[in-house]
Amino acid sequence: MEPTLTWLDLTAADQKRMRRVLDLFHEPQTRDEMGLGSLRDSFSDALFPGTTTIQTRLRYVLFVPWIYQRLETRPPAADQLASRARNDELALISPLASSGDPRGVIGIRARGSLKRLPSAVYWWPLVRWGLFRPGKSRSWYHAHLRELAGHGRVAERADDPGVIWTREPTWHPALPRPPRHFPERTSFALTAGEAAFLQGRITETCAGTLLGWLAQEGVDGGADSLWHNPPLPGATAAIRDVVELARRFSLHVEGMALIYNLLLAESHAARVAGDGAARGSARSVEYYRERIAEWARREGAEEEPFDADTLWAFAAGRRTRVPTPQRRFVEGWSRRLAETGARGAADDGQLRSLVRDREIQLKRGRARLKNPARLLEWGGNAGVGRMEFRWGTVRRLLSDLHRGLSQGAAPESGPS
Question: Measured in Å, how far apart are the chain's first and last C-alpha atoms?
Answer without folding.
Answer: 52
